[in-house]
Task: structure prediction
Amino acid sequence: MTSPFDDLFSIRGKTALVTGGSRGIGEMIAAGFLAHGAKVYISSRKADVCEATAARLMQAHGGQCIALPADLSRLDGVESLAQRLAALEPRLDILVNNAGAAWGAPLEEFPEIGWDKVMDTNVKAVFFLTQKLLPLLRAAAATGTPSRVINIGSIDGLKSAIFDSFSYGASKAAVHHLTRFMAAHLTKERILFNAIAPGPFPTWMLSTGVGFGGETDNVDWDTVGQRNPSGRVGTPQDIAGLAIFLSSRAGEYVIGQTIACDGGSVAAS
Result:
């Protein structure tokens, strides 16, 4: 006997694109999607790293993970990625806009390039990649199940960071509002938008911020996590679980929201 709750969190058979998927939070989400039966494309700027991650994820989780390298800080890179994906797939069920950049410098010394690079990658690319992929997202929505767009923001877009990352925090706040704006325009087409605002996760970006120079394997993440109300940093299960929820039937009525995945950091601030 079937139940209306069967396959409530299933994403099996869906096709997903995760930008910035070669490491960090993007890789964590891609791994979770693969493990739950989705076909996953990952994109990042460095082709060799992107291809190596795709191979590693398939070995670990099975399924299909395909590398589509692209530099999303440039509009021609955005357009190239959309065109190459459209040549391979008739539809796109899930788009995770995760590719991002950060820049830190004292207020008096903060350079224009540190503003432009971060805004181009974190905001402009999110908008234009979504725009270019609308035909594929609309094709997926036409099958009867809504397509999903998940924009990866940050708790730095919800509260003031302790770092001198002025353009990063502003860009992530923009991503959160852009998510609501896009939801207002496209929900009626059954393209559902939400944002995730991650807190501390064991990533290259956080490692650079807390003084470990981008190292992730030999970092005392337990000590870093002790600053968090939950007493730890996030895990792949934490971020992938939320992304899977938002991509499945279980999350279909959650629209236009920015959800902090942070172990209580925002609540305690």
